[in-house]
Amino acid sequence: MIFKISIINFQNVKRNGNLNGNWEENLMTQPERAPGDAVSATAYLPYHPSPSAPTFAVPEGAVDAHCHVFGPSARFPFAPERKYTPVDAASETLFALRDHLGFSRNVIVQATCHGRDNSAMLDAIARSDGAARGVAVIGEEASDDALDALHAGGVRGIRFNFLKRLVGNAPRDAYHRIAARIADRGWHIVVYFEMAELEDLAPFLLSLPGTIVVDHMGRPDVSQGIDSADFAGFLRLLDDNERFWVKATCPERLTQAGPPYDDVIPYGRTLVSRFPDRVLWGTDWPHPNMRSHMPDDGALVDVIPRIAPTEALQRKLLIDNPMRLYWPEEVSR
Ligand code: 0GY
């Protein structure tokens, strides 16, 4: 069986343009999930078809430091071991969204549905005309030549994922050996975990070398409140270890209240004000695995001034910090 989803082509959308009438709608078909998929493609919401233009004027040179490309699966098949099957989300659509929202660059993060095959991400970077860099997922089988090729292709970090619903197992010994091999490349390690796991995970994270970037605010349970022991422990980890960074991303994943994400704003604001030189921001487009609602990417951008209320903080969050990690050669020392 085939199901149809409506996908908007952003190609003709100019920055801050009037959306009405500018959108060109396509119908794309998506195959039914493959046998053995843990998550049905039909249970997963497609990305927002017509994101609003944000009210917040994103500063020139801003980086969307966490987003993905998926497929197109006819060219870049999803990994057989994946836990979900997303809708295709091609680089052209990502770059049109970047322009529509007012961003200048993207950091494309390898997601689990593509496993260790980084080719869709590398293809997107190659098409970006220097405006994208990437975070890869690699295994121990990756040769030094393969790592060189990833670097030449724009990769500046690797990702270790600890979410049980996304990866079957997170082999810590292998992660150690991989981390040691990338340490002298000037790359960093992105880690994705649930805050409830932090106590168990912290010794391991601390044993990793170099800069460690925590995804999605460390995924706090926001129902516990900003003064929870878990969030205090997370703040302590960052207080005590200057090499730990955090992405102030994904209010849409963390919220229990829904848009405009009032319940998540205090977490983002705390992280940005306390660690202004170690925070990143990204859309997380195309928002894999969202089932509660699909965020309007324009509304997500409007969260930025609520968590980074001054121009100086916005500049660090959106430009200075991501440039230091992903385009260090362009940053004057
Ligand atoms: C994200 C979050 C998710 C997915 C992945 O690698 C992934 O598949 O990270 C999620 O489901 O929470 O960063 O997009």
Give a description of the structure:
By secondary structure, the chain is of the alpha/beta class. The protein has one domain (11-42, 59-331): Alpha-Beta Barrel (TIM Barrel). 30% of the residues lie in helices and 16% in strands. The chain is built from 11 helices and 10 strands. The protein has helices at 91-101, 119-126, 144-152, 172-182, 198-207, 229-240, 251-254, 265-274, 297-301, 304-307, 311-326, and strands spanning 2-9, 24-31, 63-67, 105-109, 132-136, 155-161, 188-192, 212-214, 244-247, 279-280. The strands form 2 sheets. Strands 3-4-5-6-7-8-9-10 form an 8-stranded parallel β-sheet, sandwiched between helices. The longest helix is centred in the C-terminal third of the chain and has 16 residues, at 311-326. The radius of gyration is 19 Å and the shape is globular. Residues 68, 111-113, 161, 166, 192, 215, 253, 284, 288-289 line the site of (1E,3Z)-4-hydroxybuta-1,3-diene-1,2,4-tricarboxylic acid. (1E,3Z)-4-hydroxybuta-1,3-diene-1,2,4-tricarboxylic acid binds at residues 68, 111-113, 161, 166, 192, 215, 253, 284, 288-289.
